[in-house]
Amino acid sequence: MTTKLTVLATGGTIAGIAGNAIAHDYKAGEIGIEDYLERVGGLGLEAELSGTQIANIDSANIGPDVWGPLHAAAMAALKDPDCQGIIVTHGTDTLEETAFLLDLTLPASKPVVVVGAMRPADAVGYDGLRNFANAVRVASDPQAAGRGTLVVMGDRVFGARDVYKVRTRGTEAFRGFPRESVGLVTPASLEWFGAPWRSGTEALFGWPDALPEVAIVYVYAGLGGDGVLRQVGDNTRGIVVAGVGEGNMPESARAVLVALARDGMPVIRASRADEGLVDREPEDAANRFVAARALNPQKARILLQLLLAGGETDPAAIQRAFDGR
Asked: Would you call 236 a catalytic residue per the annotation?
């Protein structure tokens, strides 16, 4: 029986056009979903695809204005008994943030796969068609359910919590941490590296009316307290520190952040390094700091936004949420 999949399109390089097969510059989000599905129609994919255009933009411009309609459309598709899985086409620059947000706020009852491309559709070596065919293979597999939102790039399947972009160019632009890939896929085959890991299929968080403002304070050599305050606005309700090493920061910056945390501002210590855990330090309890564990700064921001939207400000409770991710 043919699998019925819903494709939710947001634009990005996978729908981009350069106008020249060897040009470096291109414009993202030029191909509409109906046109795109017509292009993939000749691939012989064993799925019935229906598409909805949520947006058609560069993913650098994606945020709450797109996330809300995208989430609503995904929820509607998941409730549709005829829909057996969802594919989200997305630009790669913020793909990991959208995927993680969907992972936290969608049920895991059916496959949800986010896919992109590193080259525009008219470029030599366009990777979008293969990535999309791979995404169809994953979304069509019943065993993809119970794994939360997945990302398919470069013949690999990643968990949304783990995936992050590591290169500005080239088709092997994504890695995963702490798990690398959770599966290998081609248009004709799929191999999982373990059983589904979500113990329940319900969404981990409800969709919020609004996402509170959370600042990411980037740590650099010589950062002082005034530099911290320049990165924090009047509407900021939480801070993620993109620290050096294992979430470290200069003492002058730490003093300001401790004062903010003790005054009720949630502060998360993350790392600007590519990989590695940020564990709790002995002074974190007195400082009212939270350790990001395996989450990078941009994902730590998403999780903190959802916690704050639910009214959670207690550092111990926030730490438990980060420990559970």
From this structure: no
